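Morning!

This is the sequence you dropped in the shared folder:
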Amino acid sequence: MVRVIVTGAAGRMGKRLVALTQESPQLQLAGALEVNGHACIGKDAGEVAGCGHAGIPIQDDLKVVLPHGDVVIAFTTPAATLTHLRQVVAHHRAMVIGTTGFSEQETQTLKELAHSVPCVWSPNMSVGINVLLNVVGKIVRALGDSYDIEVIEAHHNKKKDAPSGTALRIAEVLANAAGTPLNEFGVYARHGMIGERRPGEIGIQTIRAGDIAGDHTILFGGPGERLELTHRAHNRDPFARGALRAAEWVLSQPPGLYGMAQVLGLTPH
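The structure's back. Tokens below.
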């Protein structure tokens, strides 16, 4: 039995993590966390998630619940995630991180801390996206440099970071396969008289509207044809299920930073 602690338990992702943990015979909800002053502090996590009484009150101090859990799952803010990761390291627990929007410095800090404990970090926990990431490099190399590449992502109107962490990861994989550094060839917006497209450009375009859970399309435009690969998340469950799968997997791993490709067996540990 894997004892799971969910941070951001009253948020959109947190509620689904709580609910799906309750449904799994391999998982046990051991703790639920929210920020100090949140209206749900003290309320039952299962009732807040809409899945019935769980017997786990939402608390505001991770140190209090860490002794009762094996792995912490975080889909929150970069600052909160790093604070929780430091506490996880101090208590020698494991962690699964789905938080996005880290700055370059925050990313470096995360990588340094995460090597002290078993930790999975991925901007997108869904199985489908990670299978897609595993094959797109082969497609780039097969098509060659006569095909233009665009990444289009769409999310709900409450999402704070843009482009999405998943879109950036897709663009990185594409750029590496094409041999074009993303920091030189990534184009994040177009407006006005921009002139002809530069060879090697990788466009990353952002849409924010309604309650879209997450759509990502890779468009390869070539002479006389185009190829489009699209992943659509119908709701947040694919991300939550992937994170819970990672939580079960990571407990049997030595300290280190892992990705979902390793969780799914797509690449060696």
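Headline: The two ends are 23 Å apart (CA to CA).

More detail when I'm at my desk.
O.
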